[in-house]
Design goal:
CATH superfamily of chain A: Ubiquitin Conjugating Enzyme
Enzyme class (chain B): ligase
Structural class of chain A: alpha+beta
Distance between the termini of chain B: 68 Å
Number of helices of chain A: 5
Number of domains of chain B: 3
Number of domains of chain A: 1
Radius of gyration of chain B: 26 Å
GO molecular function (chain B): ATP binding; NEDD8 activating enzyme activity
EC number (chain B): 6.2.1.64
Number of helices of chain B: 15
Strand content of chain A: 5-15%
Number of strands of chain B: 13
CATH superfamily of the largest domain in chain B: NAD(P)-binding Rossmann-like Domain
Protein name (chain B): NEDD8-activating enzyme E1 catalytic subunit
Largest interface: A-B, 55 and 75 residues
Strand content of chain B: 15-25%
Helix content of chain B: 25-40%
Pathway (chain B): Protein modification; protein neddylation
Order of helices and strands of chain A: HHEEEEHHHEE
CATH topology of the largest domain in chain B: Rossmann fold
CATH class of the largest domain in chain B: Alpha Beta
Strand order of the largest sheet of chain B: 3-2-1-4-5-6-7-8
Strand order of the largest sheet of chain A: 1-2-3-4
Oligomer: heterodimer
Number of strands of chain A: 6
CATH architecture of the largest domain in chain B: 3-Layer(aba) Sandwich
Helix content of chain A: 25-40%
Radius of gyration of chain A: 21 Å
Distance between the termini of chain A: 69 Å
Structural class of chain B: alpha/beta
CATH architecture of chain A: Roll
CATH class of chain A: Alpha Beta
Largest sheet of chain A: 4 strands, antiparallel
């Protein structure tokens, strides 16, 4: 067997034993403790000992969704940050970029995810969807259509849906605060 | 040949004359590039054949080749782990398996298959996950060879072997040889945990899996793949709720295929087939038998050289690109100083038994050689103090008053993260 240990002696700096904490855990610790969120966003941990599953609450203070309170579940697996976190809206909301099952169309959550991005970038991206809903990348096609064709009607629908109303036969969850 | 197979039932204790004739050419005489520590002759042969214990992770495309190569080059105590069972589609290249073996665990069949063909080799199979085993298990081997198809499993074994290195114990350092193939491309590498670049150091070299924008899938599919992704990402959870999709279940794949096909029809898209459906949801890249053979040969060659010191081993990354002709390139992948697994700094810190967490944080902030602001601390099992988010800060705040010794044992680790640190810092705590 080759004598590897002799090489080791010359590298004492690296010789320290590393902790058992997983790379994903350390990265999540770093991301979470360095979150710089505006007062419109809050994280809630159902189990504070579990850093990998939590909820983000967004209460926009401007734009068309002002007055609503929106919840997103975050699920992070052990391949983070190689894989993006799984994010879903836990309420049924009327939004061009969120479908009725809670799937979110945000580029950095799928095709444009890179490990240099972090939880802060995802959260800021989510909030941006409420300030600037995007009719060009629709997940709720009817909402997108309305936004493009008749902004006033869209705004009216948003307000109605946030109060728990029905739009075109679809009942939305009440999210108004 | 027939005679050798026939005699195998009873264990053949002694090797027949000339069995290792070709290999002995290498082991009997030092060459111009052999390591100075090389002991030509009986000593090295005895180590290879009687003492060396090697672990093979994966008994699939690469694993079958690796097991055969190792057994034939004189390794006699081989262990193999695989969590999979044999599928009919494996049979074209995983040559240790036959049609009658379909459905059986790969590790068991592979071990049996080698042992009936190569007399005197003992293969100990384990049918299960590598994560089932602990450090004591991995500590028994001299070498580990991986023929895996998942990034996650590689990261796990890499981190485990790096973490196992104990500065007080030379035996704790286990060379890791990692092989990988993807179609006509492949790589083989030698990782000396904590000494050379580890798997995690090179994670940024990976191609990211193809992901389509979810809005394209939902609204403007143009490719058969878009229809399949629609069926698996959006329709499956909508129709089946929380029921988990099992990509190995033919019924689930059948449902996805039917759903994707209907969608393709609606949008006039051609090309959705059952096998494409399976390929897309399982992220399958066609496996090429000859690529596996080349990479496995390279891995076993390295294992042989490291076990015997008969020649200089790979330093440390060999890549093969067989898509246009045969191109290969060997280079030294460098350690990444900020690698979360093998890099970073570890600092020994001796404090008094009564020092509180609050005081420890103050000490860290004051230290010139660390230079951090607002550090957050955790041990491998619990959070000690988090600066943010508010809920976790509040939950961990009571710890500030507690002595560190109540939360971390002697010699225990604390992981420190802070904005100013590129990754993290690890502290080893000792008490006066």
């Amino acid at each position: 067997m080759i004598k590897i240990w002799s090489m080791k002696k010359n590298e004492d700096a690296a010789a320290k034993k590393r902790p058992k904490t997983s790379a994903a855990q350390i990265r999540v610790q770093k991301d979470l403790t360095e979150l710089d969120l505006p007062s419109t966003m809050k994280t809630v941990f159902p189990d504070p000992a579990d850093l990998l599953n939590f909820t983000l609450t967004i209460t926009p203070d401007e734009g068309m969704y002002k007055g609503g309170c929106f919840n997103f579940s975050f699920q992070i697996n052990n391949n983070y940050p190689h894989e993006p976190p799984k994010v879903k809206c836990t309420q049924k909301i009327y939004h061009p970029n969120v479908d009725l099952e809670g799937n979110v169309c945000l580029n950095i959550l799928r095709e444009d995810w890179k490990p240099v991005l972090n939880l802060n970038s995802v959260m800021v991206g989510l909030q941006y969807l409420f300030l600037e809903p995007n009719a060009d990348d629709p997940l709720n096609k009817e909402a997108a259509e309305e936004l493009r064709k008749n902004r006033d009607q869209f705004l009216y629908n948003v307000k109605a849906s946030m109060r728990g109303g029905a739009i075109k036969g679809v009942q939305y969850d009440r999210v108004a605060v | 040949m027939a005679a050798a197979v026939a005699t195998n039932g009873a264990a053949v204790a002694a090797d027949w004359p000339g069995r290792y004739h070709h290999i002995d050419q290498v082991l009997d005489t030092p060459g111009p590039r052999t390591d100075p520590s090389f002991q030509a002759g009986d000593e090295v042969k005895e180590f290879l054949r009687d003492k060396c214990k090697i672990l093979v992770i994966g008994a699939g495309g690469l694993g079958c080749e690796i097991l055969a190569n190792l057994a034939l080059s004189g390794f006699k105590d081989i262990h193999v782990i695989d969590m999979d069972t044999i599928d009919i589609s494996n049979l074209n290249r995983q040559f240790l398996f036959r049609s009658k073996d379909v459905g059986k665990p790969k590790a068991l069949v592979a071990a049996e298959s080698i042992m009936t063909r190569v007399p005197g080799v003992k293969i100990t199979p384990y049918y299960g996950k590598i994560q089932d085993k602990d450090e004591d298990y991995y500590m028994q081997f001299n070498l580990v060879i991986c023929g895996l198809d998942s990034v996650e499993a590689r990261r796990w074994i890499n981190a485990t072997l790096v973490n196992m290195v104990d500065p007080e114990n030379p035996e704790s350092l286990k060379p890791l040889i990692d092989g990988g193939t993807e179609g006509f491309k492949g790589q083989a590498r030698v990782i000396l945990p904590t000494i050379s670049s580890c798997y995690e150091c090179s994670l940024d070299m990976l191609n990211k899996p193809t992901a389509f924008p979810i809005c394209t899938i939902a609204n403007t599919p143009r490719l058969p793949e878009h229809c399949i992704e629609w069926a698996s990402v959006l329709e499956w959870p909508r129709v089946h709720g929380d029921k988990k999709m099992d990509t190995d279940d033919p019924e689930h794949i059948g449902w996805l295929y039917k759903t994707a096909l209907a969608r393709a029809k609606e949008f006039n898209i051609e090309g959705v087939t059952y096998s494409l459906t399976q390929g897309v949801v399982k992220n399958i890249i066609p496996a090429i038998a000859s690529t596996n053979a080349i990479i496995a040969a390279s891995c076993c060659n390295e294992a042989f050289k490291i076990a015997t010191s008969s020649a200089a081993y790979l330093n440390n990354y060999f890549m093969l690109i067989g898509t246009d002709g045969v191109y290969s390139f060997t280079f030294e992948h460098e350690k990444r100083p900020e690698c979360p697994v093998c890099g970073g700094e570890a600092v020994d810190l001796t404090i008094s038994k009564g020092m509180t967490v609050d005081k420890l944080i103050e000490t860290l902030v004051e230290r010139q050689d660390i230079q951090i602001k607002k550090p957050s601390l955790s041990s491998p099992t619990k959070q000690i103090y988090f600066q943010a988010p508010p809920q976790l800060e509040e939950a961990t705040r009571p710890n500030l008053e507690k002595p560190v010794s109540e939360l971390v044992e002697e010699g225990g680790e604390i992981t420190v993260t802070a904005t100013s640190l590129p990754f993290s810092l690890s502290l080893r705590i000792h008490y006066t």
